[in-house]
Design a protein that fits this description.
2 domains; single chain; Rossmann fold; alpha/beta
Length: 262
């Protein structure tokens, strides 16, 4: 069962937060409310929300400070933010000032009074984008390698390991069953190697996007992988940032090679 999308509402107006909570929980979203900046930071670190509705908290300028903190913190910098400013007549006391607004980097900006129902379609759209994950199949005959890759990918909020296979033959079956977005394929495996499995996957009506992995990063392996239809190649010794970048790159339909191999 998939986890519910998490929304953090930051605002010190009880009626606004109560109305938003009722509406969003009725849509089966998980809602957390913070009424000041320390609570908001604590909630972000603990809950890792998929969306932040950033209203107004006192003292003046605290909402902008939270906005800047979110955008400058690597693990939260891509989190969608909807800014809810104070009513026009209260903006001198509680709202964003002009200098802050010029640095605004949010997905939407709304001024109170706000109809929560009117916000809902945009909230749904942003959450759909934020919670959509790249489905990955890991194919390698070594359990310790599969476990290491799974552990790395599990830490990424946009990636989801949907299955594993121990050889190319099993990989063909799992691709049919699970329809992964990206297949991480070892080159050398028993029963059927990664090159042959990739060649077969590339001839399907909807070819699978394969990122080849190998402990051998010689030119011959790189060329052979490309010839059978792989969209990228990552040496296992670089299976960190290069692996993550490669998955995201080929999921967009682009070829990938680590910088040092170009």
């Amino acid at each position: 069962m998939e986890a519910r999308a998490r929304i953090l509402i930051v605002d010190d107006e009880p009626d606004f937060t109560a109305n938003m909570r009722v509406l969003l929980t009725s849509k089966d979203y998980e809602v957390t409310i913070a009424v000041n900046a320390p609570q908001a930071r604590e909630a972000v670190l603990a809950e890792r929300p998929h969306l932040v509705i950033l209203g107004i908290v006192m003292p003046k300028g605290e909402s902008f400070g939270l906005h800047q903190w979110l955008r400058r913190t690597p693990q939260f910098c891509d989190t969608p933010i909807i800014v809810i400013d104070a009513p026009v007549e209260k903006q001198l006391l509680k709202g964003w000032i002009r200098a802050e607004g010029m640095q605004l980097d949010a997905d939407d900006y709304v001024v109170k009074p706000v109809d929560p129902v009117a916000l809902l379609p945009w909230i749904d759209k942003l959450l759909d984008r934020a919670t959509r994950r790249i489905k990955v199949l890991i194919v390698d005959d070594h359990a310790i390698i599969r476990e290491g890759i799974r552990a790395l990918l599990t830490l990424q909020k946009d990636l989801q390991v949907i299955g594993e296979a121990v050889n190319g033959e099993e990989a063909l079956e799992k691709v049919e069953q699970l329809a992964p977005d990206v297949v991480l394929m070892d080159v050398v495996m028993p029963v059927m190697g990664g090159l042959e499995a990739t060649r077969r996957l590339s001839t399907r009506p909807e070819p699978a996007r394969v990122l080849m992995l190998s402990q051998y990063d010689d030119e011959e392996n790189v060329l052979a992988s490309s010839q059978v239809g792989a969209m990228g190649f990552v040496p296992k010794k670089n299976a960190g940032a290069d692996l993550l970048n490669g998955i995201r790159c080929i999921n967009r339909g682009q070829r990938f090679e680590p910088f040092g191999m170009r």
